[in-house]
Amino acid sequence: MMQKPKIWALALILIAAGAVQAEAQSRSGLVSVANGSRFQLQGSNLWVRLYGIETCDLEQRAFFNGVGWPCGIVAAGWLTQITLGYAIKCIDEGSAEYATFYGRCFLPSGEDIAKLALEKGMAIAKRVNGEPIEESYGLIEAEAREKKAGVWSSNFQSGGNFYRAAD
């Protein structure tokens, strides 16, 4: 008879530990944008890199009919515009280069920031062995490319690859 209370107590402890771990994987707060795909959660030392996308570097230029424009600054400005003053929620997707973690991040409306960046042509889908790491992101990128949105109106480089403006 004494075993049941011990089992229930153990079960409650395990459930509580799981809830604490799940909470640790989700972080939110106001952000300070560093570039088109990376920001710092204010009041912390946590840097987030948006999961599944890449953007032009800050000093990078794209070329529209031979005329250069600062695609990195435009991407950073766009990210600042949509996040400024909002509590952004990020789900930890693992450790990242140049950041504390990769985050799948959302506006208060629930919209996925990386998907929005892809739709607007502010980002391209991050690839491994030529394939997008998130299949749906590749599809969204293809739609943006077809519409000549953002960087898809121009020639640019990313990750050592050269991209031509959509035909």
Question: Would you kindly provide a written description of the structure presented here, covering whatever features stand out?
Answer:
GO terms for molecular function: endonuclease activity. Keywords: Endonuclease, Hydrolase, Nuclease, Signal. The protein has helices at residues 3-24, 71-83, 113-119, 135-147; strands at 26-29, 31-35, 38-41, 47-50, 53-54, 62-64, 67-69, 88-92, 101-106, 124-125, 127-128, 131-132, 156-158, 161-163. The chain is an alpha+beta fold. It has a single domain (27-152), classed as OB fold (Dihydrolipoamide Acetyltransferase, E2P) (Beta Barrel). Strand 2 (31-35) and strand 3 (38-41) form a beta hairpin. Helix 3 packs parallel to helix 4 (135-147). The longest helix has 22 residues, at 3-24. The chain is globular.
Q: What is the topology?
A:
Blueprint: H1 3-24, E1 26-29, E2 31-35, E3 38-41, E4 47-50, E5 53-54, E6 62-64, E7 67-69, H2 71-83, E8 88-92, E9 101-106, H3 113-119, E10 124-125, E11 127-128, E12 131-132, H4 135-147, E13 156-158, E14 161-163
Parallel strand pairs: 4-9
Antiparallel strand pairs: 1-8, 2-3, 3-4, 5-10, 6-7, 8-9, 11-12, 13-14
Helix pairs in contact: 3-4
Organism: Pseudaminobacter salicylatoxidans
Keywords: Endonuclease, Hydrolase, Nuclease, Signal
GO molecular function, one term: endonuclease activity
Question: What would you say the CATH architecture is?
Answer: Beta Barrel
Radius of gyration of CA atoms, rounded to a whole number: 20 Å
CATH class: Mainly Beta
Instruction: Bin the strand percentage.
Output: 25-35%
Low-confidence stretches: 8-24
| Fraction of residues in H or I helices | 25-40%
How many domains? The number is 1
Task: Count helical runs.
Answer: 4
Annotation, overall tally of beta strands: 14
How far apart the termini lie comes to 75 Å
Structural class call reads alpha+beta
Keywords: Endonuclease, Hydrolase, Nuclease, Signal
Organism: Pseudaminobacter salicylatoxidans
GO molecular function: endonuclease activity
InterPro entries: SNase_OB-fold_sf, Staphylococal_nuclease_OB-fold
